[in-house]
Amino acid sequence: MAADKAPSWQGQRSAPTRLILLRHGQTPLSVERRYSGRGNPELTDLGRQQAAGAATRLGDDRDITAVVSSPLQRAVTTAEAVADRLGLDVQIDDGFIETDFGAWEGLTFTEAADRDPDVHRRWLGDVDLPAPDGESFSQVAERVIAAKDQLLQRYPGQTVLVVSHVTPIKTLLRDALLAGPELLFRLHLDLASVSIAEFYPDGGSVVRLVNDTGHLS
């Protein structure tokens, strides 16, 4: 009789669901470093080049069985570049949409701080405080983790590409690491960067890659 499969270093014996987390490419608001949440700008020419670079990197990964995207166009366009290479359709999941920055949408950091100095200062360290007329990071986490749990049920032991935004990707990495809220404020993710997290059905998770941009050089 064959020996049982050796456990991982965390003790799991079953195969994890691997989430490849791809941030969308550049938009005009990215260039101007403005809060870009529920607004829907298109990719810039450079953003499309970044999406093409991601497609070159990931388009030959036949382990990817599904491509899931935020509904916002900058993510969908990035996802389509990879999905076309893989011969897959893009599935839209509203759970992976970016934070609703409310009244700060389209503002620079300085403009938002000048508009609401006390709220903005506290918001930078309080995940339960929403932007004016917007979402808190805790609210974002609730929907992102729910969307992630649905993917784990739908694709057990498989590899899924999730194309999303800064806050949802940080939230998924934070969840995989069981890290505190400080990670949201101290982790940098570049445009069109790739991160990888694995989640096991019998418990536990591991982060294998964070903010890799080698395909853009």
Describe it.
It contains 8 helices and 6 strands, in the order E-H-H-E-H-E-H-H-H-E-H-H-E-E. It is an alpha/beta fold and 217 residues long. The protein has a single domain (17-216), classed as Rossmann fold (3-Layer(aba) Sandwich), CATH 3.40.50. A 6-stranded mixed sheet has the order 3-2-4-1-5-6, with helices on both faces. A hairpin with a 5-residue loop joins strand 5 (194-199) and strand 6 (205-212). Helix 2 (45-58) packs parallel to helix 3 and helix 6 (137-154) packs across helix 7. The longest helix is centred in the C-terminal third of the chain and has 18 residues, at 137-154.
Write the layout of secondary structure elements.
Blueprint: E1 17-23, H1 28-31, H2 45-58, E2 64-69, H3 73-86, E3 90-92, H4 109-115, H5 117-123, H6 137-154, E4 159-164, H7 166-177, H8 182-186, E5 194-199, E6 205-212
Parallel strand pairs: 1-4, 2-3, 2-4
Antiparallel strand pairs: 1-5, 5-6
Helix pairs in contact: 2-3, 4-5, 6-7
Question: Radius of gyration from the CA trace?
Answer: 18 Å
What's the level 1 CATH class?
A: Alpha Beta
Q: What oligomeric state is this?
A: single chain
Could you give a short account of the major beta sheet?
6 strands, mixed
CATH architecture classification? 3-Layer(aba) Sandwich
- The topology string of helices and strands comes to EHHEHEHHHEHHEE
In short:
This protein is of the alpha/beta class and 217 residues long. Helices cover 37% and strands 17% of the residues.
Features:
about 220 residues, alpha/beta, Rossmann fold, six-stranded mixed beta sheet, globular
